């Protein structure tokens, strides 16, 4: 009995020892795990609340910007911060509208030099692709004068300024310059597309303004070379005003087939016209 | 003790999982609604957002007044752009479309007006980063116009939709509406100057101005002023003189240019004098003897 109790005490002690040892290693471990998790729960809860709040705000702003009939009454914007919400909605609307002005090729007018000058951007685009944007600064006083710009020198800015009466109508002047720049950008893009899409057509000559383009075609069967000169005398357009063919076979340019091709080149951008002419097997 | 601890750990772990799932769902929801209408949170907007989310110590008055200042700046800016561009936009809605690859595609819907011409434009804008520059491209251009002169614009519009030349579209409708305004101004000017002779039966924005002498109701002249829009976007006014003179009168004066000759004579006048002076001389001719009334 005694032995048993001794054993009992001993075994109890050893049990305590084991417990103590295991607790010794567990005690600092478990609370830290709990602490860690508790901290995580706290962080996640605040993240969730943040997201909820943002979503709520987004919803409110969306409603303020496009109120659905009848719904604007029951909007639960707290009266205290409703001014803030209205300002936020208007802010986002204005930002979008200004962005839209940029997308549609607006001049992005900025008043500089304490109202004495204005800067304008002139965007160019061809067949849906936005190309280079040019900048122009006008001094407004004492009279309107072009002060700085990065428009290529072969665009005759000064004579355009005279023609469109820059002094009285800045907008008309900008419209004309923009038209010239877009036509130039378009012709240059066409040339780039010809080089990319029509490897068998050789570009013999072109100028900076892209107002002259000389192409060398190869007519199938006899592999006759055919020289084609496109002249773009109207610098406000992307289409040629004259097409001239030159060939050893003097009858070829006057053939009905090539007369038709010439009028196609007058009416359709050159890279597209070439695709059609190639399809008809008139050139290699 | 250890059991209790393990229980707590399990509970917390479950809570974490739950929260994580909730956050994922909210993030998805945020992404969806942001894509539907993307708001730009820049400048003072960011501070305002921080304030309404309770992330800042700033006072509401400060946040409101700073945002107000920025909104006023933007209003001024928009006014300037509207005036310079001759195009007034009243709504722009952007949605981000799910895209494959590195391209970002947005569906943009714009509405606005250029003078009397009301338009709605829809297109996709794709942006592709290529090194340091971004290639921006328009796709699926859709144009809706509300104008009485729609017929003269229709072939231009379908060409623009085909070539997706958004900038050309806006340059053209701007010059088109400017020329419409010129016509309206000129017609109104003549109607005010010669009220007994000039009438605008279809309103001052229409293509036709009618000239009638009050004592000769059977005779009439019409100035038909239309605007030709080429597929390339060039806007050219075409002004013609048409006449309505009874057969009998024509038979009585076979040599007079009142019939077919008048139209050609008017074209020469146009070339020599320009539209306003040419029209005025026709109006004076139609008014016959009413010199007193005319010499204003």
From TrEMBL, chain A:
Domain of life, per lineage: Eukaryota
Keyword terms: Centromere, Chromosome, Coiled coil, Nucleus
Ranges in a coiled coil: 34-61
UniProt-listed InterPro entries: CENP-O
Major site of localization recorded for this protein: nucleus
Subcellular location: Chromosome, Centromere; Nucleus
Any one Pfam family match given in the protein's UniProt record, by short name: CENP-O
One GO CC term, this protein: Mis6-Sim4 complex
Recorded family membership: Belongs to the CENP-O/MCM21 family.
Protein name listed in UniProt: Centromere protein O
Organism: Xiphophorus maculatus
Lineage: Eukaryota, Metazoa, Chordata, Craniata, Vertebrata
From TrEMBL, chain B:
GO cellular component: chromosome, centromeric region; nucleus
Coiled coil: 2-29, 57-84
Keywords, ordered alphabetically: Coiled coil
InterPro entries found in the cross-reference section: CENP-P
Classification via Pfam families: CENP-P (PF13096)
Gene Ontology biological-process entries: CENP-A containing chromatin assembly
This protein's name: Centromere protein P
